[in-house]
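Researcher: Here's the sequence for the chain we discussed earlier.
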Amino acid sequence: MDTEQLVAQENNLTQLLNQILQMATEYGAVVRVLGALAFRVHCPQFKYIEYKLGRQLTDIDLVANSRHHHQLEKMSTQLGWSENKMVRVFTAGKRLLFIAPDGMHFDIFFDRIDMCHEINLKGRLEIDYPTISLVDLLLEKMQIVQINEKDLIDTMVLLFEHDIGDTSEETIDVRHLRSLCASDWGLWRTVTMNLEKVKNYLFSVPELSEQERQNGEAKVARLLQEIEGEPKSLKWRMRAKVGDKKKWYRDVEEIIR
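Model: Thanks. This is the structure I predict for it:
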């Protein structure tokens, strides 16, 4: 797929996303986008790299407040979506999967991303719009143990686009990242492992300029330094003694990529 096709694909999905967000507002539901489209929306300056690398968009992934479960079901009916009931049963209603008449898939998660690790988004959806916060976007990718190239591309572009700091306003909030990793050894293990993979990936992509590589490498180094410098909880230290001898993550199906 060439750049023109990728741009058209993005424009179509963005237009559909805006329609969904507007309808959600009319239904009184708080909804945010995550997954691949969220990175494209929040990284306008550097998304040309995704075009260069042929990063395609295939569906729309959303997260909402669980108290708006009913409103979103009504909205899906109005849109003519059909539901995959097995997903509701399998996740005890924590995730819904709808399919539009044209075959487009819409995942809706409630309050959290629950994959290899749980990323709790309760009370955090209002931080940003129309996506989840930047640090939560980062965590969405960095918590995937079997991370793939698509995830690395999205993460790389996010780091190129945004600064790291102690706020969430157009910034990757490193305070939140430090806090989560300092209290959960398993999350720390996966996040730091994946940040190293991002760093290595930067030097395997010929399409990047040297300045872009240096920018990305500096951001990864900053994140790792911040994570390592945060005092760890007693629970973290006890789990660290066991290390990789005990599995620290859950095996899950591919959901948001």
